[in-house]
Specification:
Family: Belongs to the SEC15 family.
InterPro entries: EXOC6/Sec15, EXOC6/Sec15_C, EXOC6/Sec15_C_dom1, EXOC6_Sec15_N, EXOC6PINT-1/Sec15/Tip20_C_dom2
Organism: Esox lucius (Northern pike)
Protein name: Exocyst complex component
Largest sheet: 2 strands, antiparallel
Keywords: Exocytosis, Transport
Radius of gyration: 62 Å
Strand order of the largest sheet: 1-2
Number of helices: 26
Strand content: under 5%
Length: 807
């Protein structure tokens, strides 16, 4: 079985050798020698070779006769070829002999043709060289006249057309070598002119911007006149009947425009010669360096933009500093806008927008910084109008300016703060200059004048003859007029900001509320709390705030009138004037109470009681008489105070009643503290008698009804604690006190055990003082002992009451 497999393998190898290229037979033979039966394979190979040899021999025998026939025919052809060669040689010799004359004639013809071609070539060369010389002469003339762009075109034509046609001549080579130097000269000259142009527009940017702003102002004024003409308004009208209206840019000195605005203002482009830019652009385009030129131009303009956007350190001091800053920026972008629309690709929209974004951010940052130093509201208002004109000018050239108007809205907060500071000084000055007295009116004309300044109506006062007095002081019409001036100032800033009437109305109302609740309120508090303010001044302040509170409704109508927004519009901000003046009035009332109590304390400091006196006098103390006289005169002034916010006649009001009651309570409590003060260790019944006389004087004052309006003996209730305490000790009615203590019908209901104990101990100490027994109670020793026992008993019972009450 193994021998059959070996034979089959050998057959496969032999077939592979027969069918495989000789170069690839190595692996096949290697497989034979790697086996164990290579001898048998060699026998097989020899047998196969013998078979192939037999096949080759058979094939050769089959084709041998054809080979012999082919050799025979080839020998016949060789004889015919020798014969043909001999005939060709004879024919060639005859042809050579016959063509010698023809060749001589052809040589002559060739020489003539060569001379003719040389002559034509010379004429052609001259024809091509003459234009070169003429073109070069033209180039020299153009260079002399500084017509560089035509010269560059001539140079291009000379290089690309004329010189190639002229050929390789020495003068052409010299010209060709000189062409790059001429190009470089033209390129450098054009760049020099561009640098001069850039320097020129940098210096004249201010003038360019000023002209552009004048153009925008003239156009806006023309549009305004047309709109007023269409609306039938004609000239600018007043906002209200007081003849005040917001100023325009020309009125405020923002623009130095001639009165005759119909004169044509030259265009900003007419002030600049852009030919150096166009020439340089064309030259660099022809030279294939347009990208280099664009990069250089943009780089230089970016540098100039950074210089333009650097404001002077003192720019905030005057409006001219801001104007120069804006003019330079406008001049820069007017030039760029013109370059954008008159050249193809030197600058593109993306490049200009990038520069504008840079300029806008730096301009807004500079304005925020420098405007923060400004403390003059007029300068801020002029700056706002200048910024509006600046924005309108650039908007006319297609630049987005919404961020500038957003910044103006931010500046409005700063403007409001500056206005508040200014009006704070104005209000304080008005308060300091006020005489706190009703305004005397001598004639009808004076009355009409004050009525026009302040909305005051009083039918009762109208019926009185002249001269008469208005209930408020001069502070009231001054403050009302200043409030209107503040509203006008806010309105002026809101103009031209592209805001709706509702937004303007809301801004004015919010600013006015700040003025009322912060500035005016603080000023009123300052006037109320300042030192040495008298009660009469406080009374007049209450009257003034009452009338100012009543005028708030007129301020509401005034704002609605100038903004054309009805007061009943939804979401309309209300003025906080009513609460402001109410708070100020309440503060003044509290100050009246405080000052009045302080005055009472000053009088009480003059009290000089002899607490050990044997007997009291028959008249009240001098200090108390002076105090009662002071209170009487004071409360006569209080009859000027109103009972309600709409009243202003001389009627007793709640404020006067409260002040009177407060003074009486403070006086009663102070007298009680004076009696019970720890420094007074001993009190005699005689001192109690004198103290009782003073309290009776106070009660007499209360009965005189110093301020009308109290019902019955209401004012006497302030002294009821003192009265019951004094009655208890003077009448020595301890049995009734101790028996009825705790009952609602007790006669001494307002006397506490602790108060009674303190005062009783002071009397007991005096009675126990041995240094005084020989003089004070010598004749009443038995009565003294009995009374001392009674005092000790009462003291013990009072202490029991106190202990029971505490538990």
């Amino acid at each position: 079985m193994a021998s059959v497999e070996i034979v089959a393998e050998h057959e496969r190898i032999l077939r592979e050798i027969e069918s495989t290229d000789a170069n690839c037979i190595g692996p096949t033979l290697r497989s034979v020698y790697d086996g164990q039966e290579h001898g048998l394979f060699m026998e097989k190979l020899d047998g196969r070779i013998r078979n192939h040899d037999r096949d080759i021999e058979k094939m050769c025998n089959h084709h041998f006769q054809g080979f012999v026939d082919s050799i025979t025919e080839l020998l016949k052809v060789r004889a015919e070829a020798q014969k043909l060669k001999s005939q060709v040689t004879d024919t060639n010799q005859r042809l050579q002999d016959d063509g010698k004359g023809l060749v001589s004639c052809m040589d002559d013809l060739r020489r003539c043709r060569l001379q003719q071609r040389n002559i034509a070539t010379t004429i052609d060369r001259l024809t091509h060289c003459l234009p070169v010389l003429e073109m070069y002469s033209k180039l020299q003339e153009q260079m002399r006249l500084k017509r560089y762009y035509p010269a560059l075109r001539t140079l291009e034509q000379l290089e690309q057309t004329c010189l190639p046609r002229a050929g390789q001549y020495r003068f052409c080579s010299i010209m060709a070598e000189n062409i790059p130097r001429v190009r470089t000269l033209i390129k450098d000259t054009a760049m020099s002119q561009l640098r001069d142009f850039l320097e020129s527009i940098r210096k004249h940017s201010n003038k360019i911007g000023e002209t552009a702003m004048k153009q925008a102002h003239v156009q806006r004024a023309a549009v305004g006149r047309r709109l007023r003409k269409e609306a039938g308004l004609g000239a600018a009208t007043e906002v209200d009947g007081h003849g005040s209206s917001p100023v325009t840019e020309q009125d405020s000195g923002i623009l130095d425009v001639e009165d005759d605005e119909d004169d044509e203002v030259p265009g900003a482009q007419e002030l600049v010669d852009f030919s150096p830019v166009y020439c340089c652009l064309h030259i660099y385009t022809v030279l294939g360096a347009r990208e280099e030129f664009e990069n250089y131009y943009r780089k230089q303009r970016r540098k100039q933009a950074r210089l333009v956007l650097q404001p002077h350190s003192n720019m905030h001091e005057t409006l001219d500093g801001y104007r120069r800053f804006f003019n330079q920026i406008i001049g820069f972008f007017v030039v760029e806008d013109h370059i954008l629309h008159t050249t193809q690709g030197l600058v593109n929209r993306a490049y200009v927008e990038e520069l504008w974004e840079l300029a806008l951010s730096k301009t807004i940052a500079a304005l925020r910084t420098h405007s923060s130093y400004c403390s003059d509201p007029d300068l801020v208002l002029d700056l706002k109008n200048l910024i509006v004109l600046f924005a309108d000018t650039l908007q006319g050239y297609g630049f987005p300016v919404s961020q500038l108007f957003d910044m103006l809205l931010e500046m409005r907060e700063q403007y409001g703060e500056i206005l508040l500071k200014k009006w704070n000084l104005t209000f304080r000055q008005a308060l300091d200059q006020d005489n706190y007295s009703p305004i005397p009116v001598a004639t009808e004309e004076d009355y009409r004048q004050f009525s026009s300044q302040f909305p005051f109506q009083d039918p009762d006062l109208d019926k009185l003859p002249f001269p008469k007095k208005l209930p408020f002081s001069e502070f009231v019409p001054k403050v009302y007029c200043q409030l209107k001036e503040f509203i006008y100032a806010c309105l002026k800033y809101s103009e031209d900001l592209h805001l709706s009437s509702t937004e303007v109305d809301d801004m004015i109302r919010k600013s006015t509320n700040l003025l009322l609740t912060r500035t005016l309120s603080h000023c009123l508090q300052y006037a109320i709390k300042k030192k040495n303010v008298g009660l009469a001044e406080l009374v007049q302040l209450i009257l003034n705030t009452t009338h100012l509170e009543a005028s708030c409704v007129y301020l509401e109508g005034f704002i609605s009138n100038i903004t054309d927004v009805p007061p009943d519009t939804a979401n309309t901000t209300k003025l906080y004037g009513t609460s402001t003046f109410k708070d100020a009035r309440h503060a003044a009332e509290e100050e009246i109470y405080t000052n009045l109590n302080a005055k009472i304390d000053q009088f009480l400091q003059l009290a000089d009681y002899d607490w050990t006196a044997a007997q009291g006098g028959g008249a009240p103390s001098d200090y108390l008489s002076d105090l009662i006289a002071f209170l009487c005169s004071t409360f006569s002034v209080f009859t000027h105070l109103p009972g309600r916010a709409v009243e202003h006649a001389r009627l007793p009001g709640k404020v006067a009643q409260t002040a009177c009651m407060s003074a009486c309570k403070h006086l009663a409590s102070s007298l009680l503290r004076l009696l019970l003060q720890p420094d007074v260790r001993q009190v005699s019944l005689g001192a109690m008698q004198q103290f009782n006389n003073d309290v009776k004087e106070c009660e007499r004052f209360a009965r005189t009804d110093p301020v009308p309006g109290f019902q019955g003996d209401t004012l006497l209730l302030a002294f009821s604690d003192l009265r019951q305490l004094l009655d208890l000790f003077i009448q020595w009615d301890w049995s009734t006190y101790l028996a009825d203590y705790g009952r609602p019908t007790c006669r001494y209901l307002r006397v506490s055990p602790h108060t009674a104990l303190v005062l009783l101990e002071k009397i007991s100490r005096l009675m126990k003082d041995t240094s005084r027994k020989g003089t004070m109670f010598a004749q009443f020793r038995k009565n003294e002992r009995d009374k001392q026992k009674l005092i000790d008993t009462v003291v013990k019972q009072l202490r029991n009451l106190i202990s029971a009450h505490q538990t």
